Amino acid sequence: DQVTGRDGEKRWKRVGVNLKDHIKTAVFPQGKSPEYYEGCFNDYLSEISAEQLPETQPLWEIHLVKYPTLNAAGNVIFKIHHAIGDGYSLMAALLSCFKRSDDPSLPLTLPSHRIRKLSSSDDGNVVGAGKRAAVSRVLAAVLSTASDLWLNFSKTRFLEDDLSPIRSGDPTVGLRPISAATMTFSLDEIKQIKSQLGMTVNDVITGAVFLGTRLYMHAVDPGSDGADTTALVLLNTRMLRSYNSIEEMVKQETNSPWGNHFSFLHVTIPKLTTSTTATSNDSDDALEFVRAASAIIQKKRHSLAVPLTAKLLHLYRKLKGSEAAAGYVYRVMKSTSMLITNMIGPVEKMSMADHHIKGIYFLVSGNPQNVQTTIVSYMGELRVSVAAEKGFIDPNTFKSCVETAFRLIRKSACTASH
């Protein structure tokens, strides 16, 4: 619940929690096959995605699905309103419920990630190239920042993506049920590809999602190849090295506070070449597509738009309130074609109440976009989820296109390495 303080700002109020109101158990017919329950589970997920959480109680539910599907002996769905927290906060809370399967006394660990050291050529650019190189780098950063901030503003006022097989433009999209599909990629394999192509893990998986998106658009409507299509990438603004405990996050002075601390960035999805649409042996064209996507992302890495946008959102919320800030983000989302975001998960297998966790995925529903792609790492794999408006986008076909794109990229990387 929320109350308004003396300063006029809304704050959360502690209320009682009745677990019976929050824990739901799905009921399906008994004695059916895993294939049957797979369909039931997908229908159930679609149904609860369109239901609003009751505003008379805390905005979260836990749904237990105690039937074997094709992928697991059972499923647990945590349905949590974004007002409670962002991905970082909610992942930290989720991990506090889990233990390591191999040794519950040890903490869960995250994948190690290294900060890239400057090469000798980088050192020359940064230190020894003189004032001209330094001015050039600063000017490039300023221009990139200005361009990104202008795009952010434009997307809230007058600029929208073209209508396409992944964007209907219908204002009621966020109220409709979703259909979901999931896929898994080896993190070691992605690291091999990124080393061969000189990219990052995010470049590789984002390139695969973008290429798969374009392949899906072409498969549904070949005339949509030239559509202006933008992905809104949601980013955590904390310095993520590990997840803090809930007790640490709610302290007054902390580097990783609880709540919604995120920013966003618009990334233009490159357009397909004519030959790439064949999808059979055009690995060279797939490689060029991924390099084009990587170049766009690399340029934006030099931009200061992400931290500045986060500060502007914070200021906007302070001046006009949380609802106005949420409306601003909603308008940004509504003008783009898709959402993509990722989270870091643990390396070790987890267990909850002595039940081993085979896989973990997260979805976003209620957004004014027809398709969202979310990524989380777990046990050396990247778990990718596609949440698409039911009846408008076929998530299984979309999934197949992303898998085809990854196959083409992998083939490109092997060819390039030889």
UniProtKB/TrEMBL annotation:
Keyword Oxidoreductase: no
Record field: catalytic activity: a long chain fatty alcohol + a fatty acyl-CoA = a long-chain alcohol wax ester + CoA; an acyl-CoA + a 1,2-diacyl-sn-glycerol = a triacyl-sn-glycerol + CoA
Gene Ontology biological process terms from the UniProt entry: triglyceride biosynthetic process
Membrane topology: Single-pass membrane protein
InterPro entries the UniProt entry points to: O-acyltransferase_WSD1-like (IPR045034), O-acyltransferase_WSD1_C (IPR009721), O-acyltransferase_WSD1_N (IPR004255)
GO cellular component, one term: endoplasmic reticulum membrane
Swiss-Prot/TrEMBL keywords: Acyltransferase, Endoplasmic reticulum, Transferase
Pathway as given in its UniProt record: Glycerolipid metabolism; triacylglycerol biosynthesis; Lipid metabolism
Subcellular location: Cell membrane; Endoplasmic reticulum membrane
This protein's record includes keyword Transmembrane helix: no
Protein family membership: In the N-terminal section; belongs to the long-chain O-acyltransferase family.
Protein name (Swiss-Prot/TrEMBL): Diacylglycerol O-acyltransferase
Protein source organism: Linum tenue
